[in-house]
Records
---
Amino acid sequence: MVNVTTQGLPAQAAQAKAAQAAQAKALAPAERALSMIGGDLTEKSLKLHLEGLAGVDAVGLEQRAAALGTRSIKTTSKAWALDTIIELIDLTTLEGADTPGKIRSLVAKAVNPDPSDATTPRVAAVCVYGDMVPHAVSALGGAWSGGTGSGINVAAVATAFPSGRASLAVKIADTSEAVASGADEIDMVIDRGAFLAGNFGLVFDQIVAVKEACRRSDGSFAHLKVILETGELNTYDNVRRASWLAILAGGDFIKTSTGKVSPAATLPVTLLMLEVVRDWHRLTGERIGVKPAGGIRTSKDAIKYLVTVAETVGEEWLSPHLFRFGASSLLNDVLLQRQKMTTGRYSGPDYVTMD
Amino acid sequence: MTDREKPAPSRFLDYAPAPESTSILHLKPSYGLFIDGEFVDGHGAPFTTISPATEQPIAEIANADSSDVDVAVAAARSAYTRTWSRLSGADRGKYLFRIARLVQERARELSVAESLDNGKPIRESRDVDVPLVAAWFFYYAGWADKLDYAGLGPNPRSLGVAAQVIPWNFPLLMLAWKVAPALAAGNTVVIKPAETTPLSALIFAEILQQADLPAGVVNIITGAGNTGEALVNHPDVNKVAFTGSTAVGRAIAKSVAGTGKKVTLELGGKAANIVFDDAPIDQAIEGIVNGIFFNQGHVCCAGSRLLVQENIHEDVVDRLKSRLMTLRLGDPLDKNTDIGAINSREQLERIRQLSDIGEKEGADRWTAPCKIPDKGFWFAPTIFDNVSTSSTIAREEVFGPVLSVLTFRTPAEAIAKANNTPYGLSAGIWSDKGSKILAVADGLRAGVIWANTFNRFDPASPFGGFKESGYGREGGRHGLAAYLESAGWASPQAISTTGSTSRKKATS
């Protein structure tokens, strides 16, 4: 009995001390977090900041999203919306079965979405696995933006996508390799396990490290999109905290999902992330991008997102450097709607090309 | 330019017009009074109902004088004694279910008529008013054969003929609130819609014909205040139900005093919408907007006084203003319109007058930058900041899109300020902390309290006020009880009828 207490106490005290030390541990000095939270950037100060954010009422949020979904976008507004949707698409293939041939076919679709109508705009980017980046770059050829800002970007998913369950070294290697092969944009996943366990500092430090790995040899950076995988975070309060965390750590974009977990992007989640981005802009004047990904398959749905963006953060966000759709089948539905607006008739899936 | 060429709209947010078609309406040039199942001419001078958005006439409407009121009440009395009170609850329910389904079938037509005549956005009449009308009839249809469970003991009795006078803010919905429980309980009805919004009630009369409701069970008479007065004061009505202003409600209470008529009054309000510093802020902003700008603020339970905790006052007002700039004011029939027209010139004048007083009394006025159409009656969403509790706009019901912002420091002060009004119809509380919501709700003297939401209605929930907001409840079981009286738990009739039912069961 006596032995147990004498042995138990120091062990507990040591544990408590270790926990305290972890709380006090300084985090990577990301610029935004330093200016928002202050010089004493620690796990504890980050946690206090994130937990001090206003809560989200789920019923109210979903009601607002549903109300935005009732906007009726017709005629000239619809035509503009359809073209804008195409310009905002990250045309995506993320399959284990991806081959160089599949990537070439995807790129051909990105460059020339509708061979029957030369006025069709091109998509913003193609989004592929890291090892497919060289194939995408060579297939794009002259259409590749190559960091110039005009042309089609190549986005690569990285950091042990989609689960994010790998060591930091692996995640960094994954990222730098994609950047070195020419990726203009990196879509990283956060460590949801760490986030749900309350290790906000770990999630934060990893984003900062991946951001650093996005640095090219000339000192410029590949754009960093941070995937929150909102379907696994489960609550809107978590989504709001993770969005703030990703922005504080230096993300250029916050992205809803990998597309591998259900539910993927939903309108309420996207609305919530847009509200965070709006608040960040109100506070700092800085513009952060938002990318809903997965599950947006129809023009009708995509138009609801455009309305939500325009009425939440303002329509200047309806531009490829601030808003993207992560999608594959969406493009063909938009093309069908577009053809209908030109000809007045609905055609069918045989009148748009496979990717 | 074809649709295909990418237009360069100056702004995407200037959505292209998306008007709801009026071709679904088959309006007659003139409407009579609906008495004893037929449209008949009125004996008063007919009047014209106009669209408040364009000031264009819609139709000519008959005007009921006191002789018409006599005929309508007589028709309701005869239908009560000969038909309706003799039907079983299940049969009454069948008619109500039929009406509910017909309302759903003709929902688009009713929505368009409502927006045309009232000026409210089609989005609201389509998504709120008309679906709730159907819900109300479905709900009370279910009650018709279950009156024993209305809380009044076995075999509660209907009252007889109900005289009902309704306002112009939710013309068809208020009709449903009044007619559905009255019929379910076994009463017959003479109802007078508001002078400026008779159209949807007259289309509803066509629905009653379609539903084959026995003649005289519902009579709809149109006219102005004196028609309503004649109806309410008619000696052969047993029940008076009124929704409208406190001044008229007070007059009705006086006139029916001592007559033995049962009365329910649903009058004005000056609801407090209380926002604590731990509120879910984005949803609270939406709730404030929905609380006061829904239906152009023509809502008796509108959250017209925003009580916001002082430490977040500036942030809330700031966010509110940015949000209001995205509201779209204009053609009520456009599917993207958020704020429609003010119902009448008279009401517009009253809103203007009170707003001017608010400004004179020193409150800071801010108006959303909306383009106001040339014709029709319009008032842009307006906020008055730094309003004191003694200001006229914090005490009087404006009944328009005008919000007064006041601050408080503690929950106790919030409760005291919220209750500091002659009204007591509704209130809202915004906080992420459940225990605080419950504690504050306990202290509020208001009939309806919304937590983290505002202006939500359900037929199962009773609605009504404290103090000058009136008495009696509408909706739910309580709303049913307003059209019934107890047979008495131990009355011989109650005992004998229940006794006979059980004997019948035993022998069958």
Note: The longest strand of chain B covers residues 402-408.
---
Amino acid sequence: MHQRKYALELISKKRLGAAKPAATPIGTNIKLTTKEYDDHVYNYEQEVNDPPTNIQGYQRLLGKLLYLTMIRLDISYIVQTLRKSLQQPKKSHMDVVVRLVRHIKQKPRQRVLLSSQSNTEVTTYSDTDWASCLFSRRSVTGYFVKLGESMVSWKSKKKNTISRSSGEAEYKSIVTTIAELIWLIGLLKEIGVEVKQLAKIYTNSKSVMQIASNPIMNKLRKRNDNQIVSELPIDTIIEILHRLPSKSLVRFKCVSRSWALYVSDCRSKRLLWSRTIGFFYQAFRTHAQVNFLFTSLGNDNNVDQCVNFLPGCRLYIIASTMGFLLCCEQEIYQRHYYVYNPATRQNFAVPQVPTRTKNVEAGIKIPAESTLTIESFSSKTNPWTETIIVLEFPLYFQSFVYQYSSKYPKSGVAIDGVFYWLDLVRPQINVYDSVNMCFWSLESPDGLSHFHKRSIGVSSGILCYANMNQGLNVWHLKSSVRDKIARWNKKYTRLNVCKAVLTDLETLGPSNFGGYHNFDHDMVFHPAEPHILVIASFKGYGKFLMCYDMANSSAKLLCDFGNRKTFTNLFPYEWQEWPLFL
Amino acid sequence: MVKLKSNDDKEFEVEEAAVIQSEMIKNMIEDGCATSVIPLPNIDSKTLIKVIEYLNKHINMGKAAETGEEDDLKEFDEQFVNMGWEELFDVIMAANYLNIHELMELCCQSAADRLKNKSVRAVREMLKITNDLTEEEEQEIINDAPWAFEGPEIDDTVN
């Protein structure tokens, strides 16, 4: 269907038969203004350059062009724009009209194809030019509807209302399109054409697509078999990917473009952790969630919640070192052990402990008495190895643990393959060198035994020892890790810890603490800064976590648990550079 | 009792104790806007039945731990997530919408476990993702981290 004759007549009437055809209907960035607008925004120069033009000629020409929009989709936008200035046309308008006629000359036979082999699939395309009308700041919307291969309806129209954002304008444009669509489908039904498929609407605005695909809005959504995952919100996909170990994560970058983006999102988050230091703690019940608490350098809220899970939620942590956690799953007759890397989400099941005694502490099982069998597990050698060492002194490890510490025994700490435990009865630290397979004990610097609260920890590679005896005393081990005789360096003596902590509690903490206080709960060293001690304690019935800086005797409330949860031991943790694999 | 309505207009009655595991409905009840039927416009009845089954089983999580029903619950969870991908994603969407933390956790973990050792090809096939990367781009990713693409555990089967 075409209007060649009409177009040619139009051209000859305008005496543009010899004019050069224009490839495009309108020059880019031409903003037409009305007379009214010019009067308002007075511009002398513009008035001189842009005088009023022959009104009859303009109106006649536009009337002809208006008829032509019945069949010419490409000129409908310009005709729509020009119509606004019918009353007081200016030279600039006339210029555009002339150019338009020259464009028509380019292809006077331009037509609408009504395909003979057509299906009943309805497709629409819509777009908006936001606030394109300079005078009223209203948006212009355009759409066209295709039935199968043929174009059946199109329009370019200035909106009646003002949209405040381009998204709003685009969304309104879709509404207009849908109104047309509904009318058209009704018409089709009336003339007996059945539209079986859903109508498709194409738009170029991402925000509109998101608004439109909001699951709350479209109740009668049809499942498209080809896109299971894309229906999930991106957050959820990332949530799932977060639970994958790094190796899988890196591999899945290859799945598709969008997945590559999600993966790099997950990875950059994990990289962020590498400078994070914090503490894991766990509520008493074994199925309770593991929590990670940050004391890191300044940015406390930077790490996402996904850290807070272990594979299978019935695990509890028993040790933490080198960026790994040693976790234990308790079953009735046996325990399973896992090594878990929270940064890479990898876990590794430690093979079953060969003997019947099932306590593993930082990879080592300890029965008492004078001959000691140490079974150790190393990821290098893989199977459990048994080392029998005849001890020259008795060791006390078990039973006391349950009375003085929390439910699960605290494991030793390790530096460079050497493990240290506090002897639970005598004033000494028991040492096992897993490289040279020998056992000895170090004198503790204070001579205090299990009646006092003591704690050892590793902070920036130094073995630290602290006790709570009329105030806080802290020593650092001066001799090298494999020396059989210990030399201690007394670093801090702080008599008024309780006072500092309490004053701080009064200013920072809530007032529901009772008068009674006790600092016996747990005490760990900050993994990177040896002068910071984290004290878990309770006062009255409230449980809280304090960070005590020994260098300047100041305390800071890290976390207040209130009466809700009891926690087991704290595990200092330093995120290692990523990726660190098992 | 609280009444829930799925998007295909079927109504379900659920005990309040069960349904308040959903943060969303809990808030609604607290604000007093759950007096009549709660419409859930983006959950179909098939998924809603699944979710209610889960909620009913998990009513007394704390109690279960004390009475030694923990294993029972664990077994139930294992059975529960034993479903097809589409169904699983429906449940995830529902859990996300209703804000049921534990269910979300369970399903996402299950999805991650299924994906964990799969090869790229298997993942694409399972989740029906079309590969829009060019061969060069793909090769580049592989060259960046060849260790991620080799290993005995990588599973190429689709199930």
Note: The two ends of chain A are 72 Å apart (CA to CA).
